[in-house]
Input
Amino acid sequence: MKIDIIDEVAEKLDLDEGQLLEVLAIALYKLEKINGVQGGKITNKSEIEFHGLLGKYGQFVNYDEDDLDTDLDNLKDI
Output
């Protein structure tokens, strides 16, 4: 997929292509449309590196009580 941004908007954004991909990936992640692995793929980073980007943009990892319960259950099986 290719996304075209008109020059006027691109100039106002003052973001390079990598930064724009980061913003897009973080927005999709916060909307729960993608997960951390997919966010990493969009930004050419690992999942851990992508989670680090969230902090750079003042965002948090999507992790709720159900995720914690699942992780604790998985740890019991180890």
Summary: Residues 17-30 form the longest helix (14 residues).
